[in-house]
Design goal:
The chain contains 3 helices and 2 strands; from the N terminus they run ββααα. With 97 residues, it is mainly alpha-helical. The protein is elongated and about 80 Å long.
């Protein structure tokens, strides 16, 4: 055993959330991890997808007055700033020339 690893005191490494940590508990946790945490459900990291298409974050600079106008309208319409900006871009992109 490495000298830097704590040695158990009376067979226990202590407790975590009221569970006594013994060699048996550690062995069970290691086996569970090696088995891929059977039965566990993991969520995909990051924000939930809003579309089936891949998305990209785009940075846009706005003046304070432009941002205030966007925020004011988004608040009036009970929308997020991002949703309001996406709607504005959709209207502009699909407008007839």
């Amino acid at each position: 055993m490495n000298d830097k690893i704590a040695k158990p005191d009376g067979g226990s490494y202590g407790t975590i959330d009221g569970v006594e940590i013994t060699e048996e508990v550690i062995a069970r946790l290691v086996k569970n991890a090696e088995d891929g945490f059977p039965g566990a459900k993991f969520r995909t990291p990051g924000r939930p997808a809003r579309t089936e298409e891949p998305t990209r974050a785009v940075t846009v600079r706005l003046s304070e007055s432009e941002l205030e106008a966007v925020m004011a309208r988004a608040e009036r319409e009970h929308r997020t700033r991002s949703d309001a900006i996406r709607e504005a871009i959709a209207e502009w992109a699909h407008a007839r020339a």
